Model the fold of this input.
Amino acid sequence: MTANRGFGIDIGGSGIKGALVDLDRGELIGDRLRIDTPRPSTPDAVADVVAEIVRHFRWDGPVGVTLPSVIKKGVAQTAANIDPSWIGLDADALFADRLGRDAADVAMLNDADAAGMAEMRFGDPRARRGVVALLTFGTGIGSALFQDGELMPNTEFGHIEIDGHDAEKKAAASVKDNEGLSYPDWAKRVDRYLTVLENLIWPDLFIVGGGVSKKAGKWVPLLDIRTPVVTASLLNNAGIVGAAAAGTEGIVH
Done:
């Protein structure tokens, strides 16, 4: 294992992705491996997939793992788009046991926080100044909030109530697909969401990520809000990169 390499696993509601990461450049080394998230997405079933991905790469070093959950000292406090049996579970201990690692060699963190940390380190330099919110649009909406590059962990802005609904139930990328919305129609929902959020936290910049960021040109220009919006530099690999950095450097919250 060379000093500038790490390994990250990004657990989402629809897929679990892992890859080797060059921590000097913030880039994947080779291809990532993606496996569909099991149904139901119980801790044991998800841990089996994570172990399979790690074995595939023959990686024997520290591992960073993201989860769509509030993570406090390695324990999952919520379960967004994963099985509710995660709530209250010591996820750190689960993955350390399943991967045959010491607890110190597994870092658990919220998926959007991991993506945001990667963007702070390797992305647009503007992201390191002022109040910046990263939002990942996927199965749900994840959020990470930064002040001058410092993370305020475990924000849950995807669950603020807007017009009587949980925000991600109307504006997540999965909703676009499930309801067959065009990009312009979906962008109206995202615009409404961001307008409410910017009036709550008054950010200097929004960074949008998640799988739909690969097609940012179809919807980001349609947004009509006062806050500048940029696409995540690492697109949908940001979570993997942030997880790998956390695992190697021992960054936990």
The radius of gyration is 17 Å. The chain is about 30% helix and 25% strand.
